[in-house]
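From the pipeline queue, job 12 of 40. The input is one protein chain; the requested action is below.

Action: predict structure.
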Amino acid sequence: MSDKSTKKDDKKIAKDTGKKVSSKKDSSKKKASPIKSVGKFIREYKSEIKKISWPSAKDTTKNAAITLAAIAVVGVFIWVLDFGLSQVRDLGLKKIPEWSASDEADDEIVTGSDLIVTPSDSAE
């Protein structure tokens, strides 16, 4: 009984909306050939392309100018931020005492195996 009521409901919905109700017989149809499918795709593609509303030249120019201005503002912001942080870094590094490699070498005991003489050292 549920099958009959479902079919009646489907037919009523189809009648109200104007759509065809698919039945089991419809689903057993053979599929369309690939050539017909490609032709249908191309026809639908052309109709969709016609529906596109392209912006005018004035709108395109305005949008391009807005984009370039935004890029410039963000670029300047990043440059200022980079410059400021590098100045803070340099200021912080000036506060740290400089340690040279020669100071560290004076504190360590140099053994014979650690001492390497290169030709440039012996010429001096």
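Job complete. Residues 57-95 form the longest helix (39 residues).
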